Amino acid sequence: xxxxxxxxxxxxxxxxxxxxxxxxxxxxxxxxxxxxxxxxxxxxxxxxxxxxxxxxxxxxxxxxxxxxxxxxxxxxxxxxxxxxxxxxxxxxxxxxxxxxxxxxxxxxxxxxxxxxxxxxxxxxxxxxxxxxxxxxxxxxxxxxxxxxxxxxxxxxxxxxxxxxxxxxxxxxxxxxxxxxxxxxxxxxxxxxxxxxxxxxxxxxxxxxxxxxxxxxxxxxxxxxxxxxxxxxxxxxxxxxxxxxxxxxxxxxxxxxxxxxxxxxxxxxxxxxxxxxxxxxxxxxxxxxxxxxxxx
Length: 295
Known about the structure:
The protein has helices at 6-20, 60-78, 109-123, 151-170, 175-186, 188-191, 230-236, 244-251, 260-279, 284-292; strands at 28-31, 40-44, 49-55, 85-91, 94-100, 136-138, 141-143, 199-201, 210-213, 216-219, 225-227. The protein is an alpha+beta fold. The strands form four sheets. It has a five-stranded antiparallel sheet with strand order 1-2-3-5-4, with helices on both faces.
């Protein structure tokens, strides 16, 4: 586990010791890197745990600052729970993000329902334009949040086009698949459905970015901007099916347009393209399946 290498572990132990006001050292560790784009895990001395994420990217500090800013914005604007930040720390060869660890519980219907309620709470926050005041990151990828006056312009120009370019540049996207994406992009105006008021979005609302605990649901790893709330709803089931409890609870607080089921694969295209770029061709089948619905 890379976090336990001394040049990385030492600054973690120093930062956490300063945070808790006593000597703190790693006694046990749980590697969570398989669930993220960076080496990460939960480290504990047996009484206090932290979640640590490491990146050696040149823009790592900016990425982590943006992540914390997004969490704080969601908390302030929508009142959702976020992990307590400990800090952003320099380490040999990279940068660390440290937050207090959360004790997760098994998800049952009440926990799935709470994810729907949390999304509805976020989506109640409205904006005048699609986009955000600052740009951000989607995992390790740059995210252009330049405002646009209509949703399909924003989705096409700020999400699909950059994701397509990144996937092509990665060498993981066959040219034939790229052509299929371009053909669907040309049909966006007819496929996008009714225009919706710009809503605050988590922006990367995959299931693993909601932490179910005895204290309630916490949100992590946002890619905040304002857009069509169907994006977040589509991403909940992007890689794993989401139970109806999520959407039933959401509908009790916010409407879901009847045509959402026909559009959710459209809203997943940018995420699948990002996954192809970051993780490789293992995601091509998902991308192909989504495209097939609109060809």
